[in-house]
Design brief:
This protein has about 250 residues and is α/β, with parallel strands linked by helices. The termini are far apart.
Length: about 250
Amino acid sequence: MKAVILGATRGMGRSLSRLFAENGHDVFLLGIGEEELQASATDVKERAGGVQSSVRVGYAVCDLEHPETFAPALDAAAQELGGIDTVVVTAGLFATQERLEQDLEFTRRMLTVNFAHTVLFCEHARTRLLAQGGGTLCAFSSVAGDRGRKPVVLYGSSKAGLSAYLEGLDHKFRSQGLVTVCVKPGFVKTGMTEGLPTPPFAGTPDQVARDVLVAIEKKKPMLYTPFMWRWVMLVIRNLPRMVMRKLGF
């Protein structure tokens, strides 16, 4: 594969970048910090076998808060890798429901980044992939978007919109060669969730990365990871509204 990963310098994106390279795939890292990108690219290259490796690794700045960076970043990736066949979006913003209720400016930023600007980036990627006959577009949503819940009213709404968009893409463009993979992680131990109580079935970035690579290879339209969250959310989606009002989950 010739993969572009947005959010490649941290958490699940960084683990996925490493795993792609270790498995012999070319990788182009996108993120917001030049120095952090350079360090991550060096790390990924070393994991692929160092300077002697045939795996190509590149990077460019791309910020989901600044849509003007989207096209130039994808142009740089295509030039460096000699084309693109896989685009993965792991980047996004998160805060607790309590903070979001108290800081409406950050809420505006989060809603914009997690939904509107992520969709715009995906549209840039979709257009490019379809123009060359197809490819894979994989984006990270969340189990938080499966049902309106008290602890994630605002964050969950941003992910619900993204999940609906990705499902629509799959329905419309799969026959034209675009494979859309919607990743729905449960609680994952990353810097984003540091300090929060760890629930059962919590995952790690490396575990999620392995699951995502398999889902991409098998062209699965949706992935719950860790897998147990598939069954947890099946129950939650089917609980009556009167029960949901009483739960703190």
